[in-house]
Amino acid sequence: MLDAEDGETLLEVNNIEVIYNHVILVLKGVSLSVPKGGITALLGGNGAGKTTTLKAISNLLASERGEVTKGSILYRGEPVAARNPAALVSRGVIQVMEGRHCFEHLTVEENLLTGAYTRKDGGAAIRRDLEMVYDYFPRLRERRKSQAGYTSGGEQQMTAMGRALMSRPETILLDEPSMGLAPQLVEQIFQIVKAVNEGEGVTFLLAEQNTNVALRYAHYGYILENGRIVMDGPAAALRENPDVKEFYLGMSDEGRKSFRNVRSYRRRKRWLA
Amino acid sequence: MLYREAGDFKTSYRDDGQTFPIRLDRVAYYAVLIVAFLIVPFVINDYWANAVVVPFLIYAIAALGLNILTGYAGQVSLGTGGFMAVGAYAVYKLMTTFPEINIIIHILLAGGITAIVGVLFGLPSLRIKGFYLAVATLAAQFFLVWLFNKVPWFYNYSASGQITAPTRTVFGLAVTGPSTSAAAKYLICLLFVFILAWVARNLTRGTLGRKWMAIRDMDIAAEIIGVNPLSAKLSAFAVSSFFVGVSGALLFSVYLGAAEVGEAFGINKSFLVLFMIIIGGLGSIFGSFAGAAFMVLMPVVLKNLLVGQFGWATDLAAHFELMIVGALIVFFLIAEPHGLARLWALTKEKLRLWPFPH
Amino acid sequence: MNTQTDIAIADRQLGGTLMELRNITLRFGGVEAIKNISFDIREGEIRAIIGPNGAGKSSMLNVISGFYVPQEGEVWFRGERRGPVKPYEVARLGIARTFQNIALFDGMSVLDNIMTGRLHRMKAGFLSQALWWGPAEREEIENRAQVERIIDFLEIQNIRKTPVGRLPYGLKKRVELARALAAEPQLLLLDEPMAGMNVEEKEDMSRFVLDVNDEFGTTIALIEHDMGVVMDLSDRVVVMDYGRKIGDGSPDEVRNNQEVIDAYLGVAHD
Amino acid sequence: MDQLVFAAEVFMNGLMTGVMYALVALGFVLIFKASGVFNYAQGVLALFAALTLVGIQQGQVPFAHLINSIFGTHLEYFGWTVPVVLAILLAGAVMVLLAFLVEKLVLQHLVGQEPIILFMATIGLAYFLEGLGDVMWGADIKNLDVGLPQGISESIESVSANWFGYGFFIDRLDIWAAIIAALLVTALVAFAQYTKQGRAMRAVADDHQAALSVGISLRFIWVMVWSIAGFVALVAGIMWGTKSGVQFSLSLIALKALPVLMLGGFTSIPGAIAGGLIIGVGEKMFEFFIGPMIGGATENWFAYVLALLFLVFRPQGLFGERIIERV
Amino acid sequence: DLVVPNLSYRTGAYGANGTQYADGFNDYFTLLNERDGGIGGEKIQVPECETAYNTEKGVECYEATKDSGALVYNPLSTGITYQLIPKVSVDKKVLYTPGYGRTSAKNGTVFEWIFNAPANYWDGASVAIKYLLDENGGDLNGKKIALVYHNSAYGKEPIRTLQVLAEKHGFTLTQLPVDAPGQEQKSQWLQIRRDRPDYVIMWGWGVMNQAAIQEAANIRFPMENFIGIWWSGSEVDVKPVGAQANGYKALTFHGVGTDYPVYDDLQEYVIEPGKASQGGEHVGSVLYSRGMYAALVISEAIRKAQELAGTPEIDPEQLRDGFEQLDITPERLTELGLPDFGPEIKMTCDNHGGSGMSRMQQWDAKAGKWNLITEFTEPDQDVLKPLITEDSEAYAKEAGVTPRDC
Lengths: 273, 358, 270, 327, 406
Ligand SMILES: Nc1ncnc2c1ncn2[C@@H]1O[C@H](COP(=O)(O)OP(=O)(O)OP(=O)(O)O)[C@@H](O)[C@H]1O
Ligand SMILES: Nc1ncnc2c1ncn2[C@@H]1O[C@H](COP(=O)(O)OP(=O)(O)OP(=O)(O)O)[C@@H](O)[C@H]1O
Ligand SMILES: [Mg+2]
Ligand SMILES: [Mg+2]
What we know:
The structure holds 5 protein chains of 5 kinds.
Chain A: E1 9-20, E2 24-35, E3 39-43, H1 50-57, E4 66-75, E5 78-79, H2 85-90, E6 93-96, H3 108-115, H4 122-136, H5 138-142, H6 153-165, E7 171-175, H7 183-200, E8 203-208, H8 211-217, E9 220-225, E10 228-234, H9 235-240, H10 242-249, E11 251-252, E12 255-256
Parallel strand pairs in A: 3-8, 3-9, 6-7, 7-8
Antiparallel strand pairs in A: 1-2, 1-4, 4-5, 9-10, 11-12
Helix pairs in contact in A: 3-6
Chain C: H1 3-11, E1 17-28, E2 31-42, E3 46-50, H2 57-64, E4 72-77, E5 80-81, H3 87-92, E6 95-97, H4 110-116, H5 126-131, H6 135-153, H7 169-182, E7 187-191, H8 199-216, E8 219-223, H9 227-233, E9 236-241, E10 244-249, H10 251-255, H11 258-265
Parallel strand pairs in C: 3-8, 3-9, 6-7, 7-8
Antiparallel strand pairs in C: 1-2, 1-4, 4-5, 9-10
Helix pairs in contact in C: 4-7
Chain E: E1 2-3, E2 6-8, H1 15-36, E3 44-45, E4 48-50, H2 55-66, E5 72-73, H3 78-91, E6 94-96, E7 114-115, H4 121-135, E8 144-150, H5 153-169, E9 172-178, H6 186-195, E10 199-203, H7 207-218, E11 226-228, H8 235-238, E12 249-252, H9 262-271, H10 286-309, H11 316-324, E13 327-328, H12 330-335, E14 345-346, E15 359-364, E16 369-372, H13 381-399
Parallel strand pairs in E: 1-3, 2-4, 5-6, 6-7, 8-9, 8-10, 10-11, 11-12
Antiparallel strand pairs in E: 12-15, 13-14, 15-16
The structure holds adenosine-5'-triphosphate (ATP) (2 copies) and magnesium ion (2 copies).
Residues 57-58, 100 of chain C line the site of one magnesium ion.
């Protein structure tokens, strides 16, 4: 595992504010930094602004009529705003979007190949990586010739992940990678994240609801609520934090709480006054 | 902080469901009605009536109709011109066959006939979707125009195939025919617009409207939660065609007075009305009006400006007019893809927050 | 393991068979998504369907809700064999559902979306609707009151008028549930209702599911990948893999079934 | 027997007309495939391309009328003519420039919008180009001559006269159109199906955001596709302009391309050709044999009704991509 | 001032044709203003308004100009004419539609405000058949004639007359409609190629003309046997087809070319000083001449009206009287610098259509000009009269007009 402290900072988000449609203020001053070679997790409830943060980083907000109105985002010290999303991919930042976003009419394999769009290292290398992705996700090998639109939810998630890996990125922004995946596959995906991170030094910033797994694999975590960072720290420390335990890991003092007992009590997060 | 809803509490579901929940809007609405019904008729002249206001009102009905189909029910149609022709020829046949019956009834019947034709041509929508459907509705457009052109019964066997509206009166006041006053034309159109807009509003906020919108947003899901796509789509076609038929009837009988199908109800009409609702705002009653106003007024304003004010040659002005209208369409779409209605709503939303930015 | 839960399940009284699927086989071209599967859903129970990705779970729900027509097999509902039906007819029979890839009507407000759940209960005539007079208005207000109760129940009062397109994922899921509930179904099908939620939200959602089941006596079939949720909430579990059924029984039986562990759970789950 | 021979002649001519329609339809398909944009402006694009070609060829001063009316000058022609090949290349370059501007000024600002909005934007574009074409090159009818032969093909006539006792009429221009269309289609199919850019193009059509997120530059793809479509429009403009002069009505041939598209499938390049042939043959046969019985002038609607009937059985057209219906 | 609006069209599908006509119309009035200081000392204003051949824009133009003292309208569109007929009758404006519009408007007792001298569509149809009769020694029995027509009110106008004439002279008439715009006419011409009619008559406008002539050339239909109405007989229709169009014939009710003294004046007062409409590009073309001719008739009617009213400032009612007593004799035409340019125009209260005379012209591709090949010929009034009475009476009944006594 890499020590986040002394590594070089790859991505820096400084106090950004994001507004949709000129009226809806979603991010109210978010700052975070992602060290090179690390796995950083961005946690938080629904509508906290995780997706928005990731989209701001890869400059995809424009097509949703959102804009960064304050603050700056620097990738390797350069403002990302200056580059279009495609150029950012060439620079090594790729995002796996929430909700899969596969190209429905392309086959699974064609989907994966679009991931290699920006690569210049020739067909052989691309084929090799394709094999690698199929090794990671054997299910995709079986479905390679199917139109992505007709594959199951989980298969689409794998396709989206595989597509990102195909671009040989330096940094991957993962938005809810575990969503809709079977438990052993969730574990597997994070294993892959870990393997890619350690083996190839790829940096990860992942937004996750599945705090439990995320904090097991991440080095550092930020907790975002209501458009603000409410807590951050090394993953191990966060895991031990009683509030995190209670609200994000679903642990009570005697171990895991049962979902059947939820009816009996309900405590609110303090910091949401 | 004039414009806001704070303090404007609703205590019943009926109040909450009303058309203009904000008091200021309500006041503005009644003010517009008073001006439209009680003041304008006394000041309107031929030019304003014939060149601007009457076509605006009539197109607003057509736009409302198409908006129900395309904006609310999501079925893109390019057959509007053809359906307007059905309305026009229906009213012509009715007017000339039953001269003793009131024209208002004829116009409503013409709408009804158009609704039936609309349902017929709407049947393929059960299978065909999106742009395919749009192009398929062109079949209706071209076929209907051909039919009215080819079958002499429709134009009472006149030599040239033109139809001409005879004079008909309402309460002793001529509303069609050459001697109709500007005010009479205006009032009859206004009356139809007012009632139909109100009906459109009622339909779209209730059960039927929800069915339409559900089909529009995701037809499969709508079907699975219990919306019968057949009845939803066909009812949209029927209601929409009724509106369009009425507007065609008015266009011919009140506004043009004489018409030839290919010229007056050609494919350009279909596109024109579609432009209106997209520019105005899909799925918005207000948008239908805004779009109709834009597409009717813009060319007139530009022409008066370029030729009247700047004294340009008419052909240069006409070419520039095309360029400017085109550029404006693109400009508005970029500024707000959801049309003038959304632009207006956003402005209001900002006003509501004012003086805070968000 | 939580002993308290087990007792609770043991106490629950399950009713008769509400729905029965017999030897269902479903093919898409060459792909056999469901292979000869039979199982039943009893009145008042919470039935979970689990299995690896692509196992055919969603397809199964689609069969139940009439969207996919299986090549072979029979669907029995309330003791009658269901003939060929259209999905909207199924909805009228009292089966409502949510979707894996949220299928809300993006252009409508939350309130309108939920109201669509009650569409097939609203019967006012066309004229009445056009004039907004008499039955139409009355009906609207009555149903609105019902919907407001569901809105209160699911705690989404503050977003009533927001267009759903703008909502974050989790809230959308909740609105979808609300829409399904608005139909007052006898059988509620939930396709991954808790995907993409954090623990707190899952707790909320669990609470809703349990309350619906308890208070309205609604039978629930749900697909879920979170084993904690599945094991805690469900009365019985069907496990699918590659279109086959590899397990069926109480949560305990299932989690100790070696085949299920190999195919799906990976490790024995507590 | 006679009827049969006539039928054969009409059939052949239908095929040829179909090719001419397909040339226009191709441009639509390309842009639809690459951006999901239903490009209403395709017809105007053809007109604009043809106007530009004639203007360049004849050495017309662009915006002459405007300049004259502002400065009181009497410009009209530069006084030179440009050789055909060079003129075509220059006109092609203008179309590329146009593609660039369209992307820059319109499409770029509409990334991720619904198809109908983009459709509407192309309508705005059509208006604009129509006006621009007139201002730039004048509204009068122009003669386009790039040396393509026209008129009855005597060899076919005499061969068929030998065989059937009736000389078939086939226009030589149509034969050329068929050859050019075949070449274009082969090239375009190969491009879309087997190259990386082709794949990227299809990806963009599916999901703008996702395409951006994997590093496909929408800008590049769109400029590329609009350039190709502009070039196809130029070819269509040349063929139709040679046939009936370059003037406003040229933009209306787009209406003849729509049923072709519908029938062939909006997303299929071979579909454009197949659709064109079916529509061409269908409408000509119908007009020729049934038309006289019901008053003629059936061509406009018949094409659409034929396509409509087809769609009822295959909602995505002959070769269109399957419409994905899933929940 | 005298206001004569010019409802022109310089854009859209027929812009190329409309432009030339509008130029001729403008230039003639400019000439009168520049050379004579107007008519009877009153300057003429010709405000132009673009209709794009679109009826609604036509109405807008009419409404926009009618309160400015406009005397007479000439919209050059059958559709707009139909639109304006009821309106002008109420607003009391003169509508002058030479060679187009509603044929039965010739009946002045019903159509008080409409004039369509010197010729209308039925005159044209009749003259064309007369010409063919002449060619065939007075006998068309058993001949086959095909009518290729614009599938609109305009194109359908001659059908009724031709049907009656077919019965009378024993030829068969085949109708071949072409939908606007008319670029694609393959089936029509394949049919012609198969049926081998002896003659083809065409009622076309815009691109349809040119496409038809091209197709005729393609199937090697003899151009001498192909006759267009006057709206299918201008340079724009034949030039693009090139040498193959040689020999094509068309009707006309006025002279062509610039071999008339009036052009010297036009050159001197209008073109040279740079006052020509659109730079004088189209001077002398067929459509330009026609626009000019329309202006000439209007100006003569104004002159007459001034004479009758005894004042140079006339109103539309007086202009109507001027039209009804208009008599443009050959001598008068010569005085105006256009000897033998048009037929004599003599209108009365019940005859708003004049004599209906027109002549045949033929295209000489090599010289690039139209040659007149016949004298002005009179149509077969025996056939036309009853038709006109019938149609105008039907209109009167439908529109509730009581015919005037003349
Ligand atoms: N296009 C949009 N227009 C308007 N508001 C938006 C838009 N997209 C997101 N929002 C709002 O921004 C807020 C943050 O949304 P975001 O999707 O970033 O949350 P998230 O943390 O990713 O949530 P989830 O875990 O549910 O995905 C939400 O309240 C949402 O309503
Ligand atoms: N309409 C369809 N056409 C073709 N194949 C389909 C279709 N629907 C589903 N499939 C295939 O059937 C299989 C089962 O799909 P299904 O969506 O039921 O899986 P699932 O169990 O819900 O998986 P997940 O947990 O990933 O959502 C998958 O391989 C899928 O690709
Ligand atoms: Mg998110
Ligand atoms: Mg699923």
